[in-house]
Design goal:
Blueprint: H1 3-14, H2 26-35, H3 41-54, H4 58-63, H5 66-73, H6 79-95, H7 104-107, H8 115-126, H9 135-144, H10 154-168, H11 173-186, H12 205-208, E1 225-235, E2 239-241, E3 243-244, E4 255-256, E5 259-262, H13 268-271, H14 275-278, E6 282-287, E7 293-296, E8 300-311, E9 319-321, H15 332-342
Parallel strand pairs: 1-8
Antiparallel strand pairs: 1-5, 2-9, 3-4, 6-8, 7-8
Helix pairs in contact: 1-11, 2-3, 2-8, 5-6, 8-11, 9-11
Protein name: Adenine DNA glycosylase
Cofactor: [4Fe-4S] cluster
Catalytic activity: Hydrolyzes free adenine bases from 7,8-dihydro-8-oxoguanine:adenine mismatched double-stranded DNA, leaving an apurinic site
């Protein structure tokens, strides 16, 4: 049986019951794909449900305030995706008369939409023969055809896209694309793949050559940069201070406590020399987390400390009542601190 037919048959009997698969509404598929980028389905489901409840249509999302969108996104990370989602919703409503684009060439013009997402929407919602290539697809194809070209190289990206496109020509795009992604997630897994129950096992070249564990191949990652962040949590018992981040960056337009960054782990002695601390009439300074919390991003590791600073010198500017602090969209690190702080 041909590769695509085998996968489609497998999918018919094994496909996962997911809410966005119950409709061909491109808004729902788009929303799910953006949420699930680098997010497990189990975690992404709750966010998908939150967004569809708050913003059941693309118009509702377009009319929402950015702060509310970011608050609903809180915990997923990569906040630029939420901002792009919001931007594109407004673009669809204002520039496209509320009509979602129907072809790959038009869908990929949406801000924050790349080849994978455009292919997924175009094939699933409009049955266009454009192949998806995500981590699951890379894994299935590299193993089945025993391809050792690095998947994160320019050559690899082009090669696998062309191969995937060849394989979809005779397939049902909607079923095939979802089949190969589910198959990679459920059977051809990164660790401990279920080769014994794999319908493709007989034709799998990597299996025949005992290369499963070596594929897919990735080029070495870039050097990780360490950063040392110190959040200053001013408090007078009733109020604290939050600042809205401006400019570009991963936490753009999110709220945080005043921040001081050092070249290494900071001590209290180093901290109190900074003008930020001198500007406040502080009575006590206490380190909340003796061991820095390490937040790992793709290109940097954030070593983070939170300093509790008691002061009566909190003006109305940027002041927030502790009882209202959950109304603000904050980075995951700040959210983790708030959860811990409330329980102490």
């Amino acid at each position: 049986m041909e590769f695509y037919k085998t996968l489609e048959m497998w999918y018919l009997n094994n496909k996962r019951d997911l809410p966005w698969r119950k409709s061909s509404n491109p808004y729902f598929v788009w929303l799910s794909e953006i949420i699930l980028q680098q997010t497990r389905i189990q975690q992404g489901l709750s966010y998908y449900n939150t967004f569809t409840n708050h913003y059941p249509t693309v118009l509702d999302l377009a009319n929402a305030k950015e702060d509310n969108v970011l608050k609903n996104w809180q915990g997923l990370g990569y906040y630029s995706r939420a901002r792009n989602l919001h931007f594109s919703a407004k673009y669809i409503c204002n520039e496209l008369d509320g009509k979602f684009p129907t072809t790959y060439k038009e869908i990929i013009k949406l801000k924050g939409v790349g080849d994978y997402t455009a292919s997924a929407i175009a094939s699933i919602c409009f049955n266009e023969k454009t192949a998806v290539v995500d981590g699951n697809v890379y894994r299935v194809l590299s193993r089945y055809f025993n391809i050792d070209i690095p998947i994160n190289s320019s050559k690899g990206i082009k090669y696998f896209k062309e191969l995937a496109q060849e394989l979809i020509i005779n397939a049902n795009p909607k079923e095939y694309n979802q089949a190969i992604m589910d198959f990679g997630s459920m059977v051809c897994k990164p660790q401990n793949p279920n080769c014994e129950n794999c319908p493709l096992e007989n034709g799998c070249l990597a299996k025949a050559k005992n290369m499963i564990s070596s594929l897919p191949v990735k080029e070495k990652k870039i050097k990780i940069k360490n950063r040392y962040l110190n959040f200053i949590v001013f408090t007078n018992g009733e109020q604290t201070i939050l600042e809205k981040r401006t400019g570009s960056g991963i936490w753009q337009n999110l709220y945080q406590f005043p921040l001081l960054e050092f070249d290494e782990i900071a001590t209290q002695k180093e901290l109190i020399k900074k003008p930020l601390l001198k500007d406040y009439n502080t009575s006590t300074i206490k380190l909340f987390n003796p061991e820095p919390w390490v937040h790992k991003l793709s290109h940097q590791h954030l070593f983070t400390q939170f300093w509790i600073v008691d002061t009566q010198n909190i003006s109305q500017t940027n002041s927030v009542h502790w009882e209202n602090i959950d109304n603000f969209a904050v980075p995951k690190l700040i959210h983790k601190f708030l959860d811990s702080y409330k329980t102490k």
